[in-house]
Amino acid sequence: MTGYTIYYVRHGQTDWNAELRYQGRQDIPLNETGRAQAHANGKKLAALLGKAEGIDFVTTPLGRAQETMEIVRAEMGLDPKDYRIDENLIEASYGTFEGMTLPELKAQYPEIHRQRQRDRWGFAPPQGESHAMVQARILPWLETIRSDTLICGHGVVGRALRQHFLGIDPEEAAAWAFPQDRIFIWRDNSETQV
After folding, report:
1. Which of 78, 117, 149, 161 is the least buried, fewest Cβ under 10 Å from its Cβ?
2. Phi/psi at 37 (nearest 5 deg)?
3. Full-prediction pTM beyond 0.90?
4. Sheet holding 149-153: strands in order across?
5. Is 91 an active-site residue?
6. How many Cα atoms sit within 13 Å of 180 on the Cβ side?
7. Which of 11, 131, 154, 164 is catalytic?
8. Which of 91, 129, 154, 164 is catalytic?
């Protein structure tokens, strides 16, 4: 644990999320549902944190997370553009699967899909990253945190952080549907969802 409070917001929904299409590092914009989720999360954070003095705001290089962060900050009455971008927080690469839907993956690569079902935490798509690889990438970054931090990030990154903070079974962490309409607060090896 960092000794600080981490507030984690997954970016709002995109059309690819709604289609169960592997997004990974593709820079897909938020849809209207995603923007509404970001506005709602921003209102919740405003009520929870006020002007969030002393909190570091950081997001990933992908536009869907940056747009979510800007909406959240605007709802909090803060300068929408006053946040940091960190490459370490970029979403997992789904490699050759990016752009495919889950049903397409099952139909075209049934054995690979079965491998993924058997080992969600350790499975890496061809030319992509596993949850374990993402966690190995972000844990050193986590050690650099020096204040309470609000992260606007992605599903696999959130699952990797959640597994680390809560110490839950990696397979359970990897299979968990990471919602886009709530805020996760990790502090002292515990989780609160708002």
Report:
1. 117
2. -60, -45
3. yes
4. 84-85, 56-59, 149-153, 6-10, 183-187, 190-193
5. yes
6. 24
7. 11
8. 91
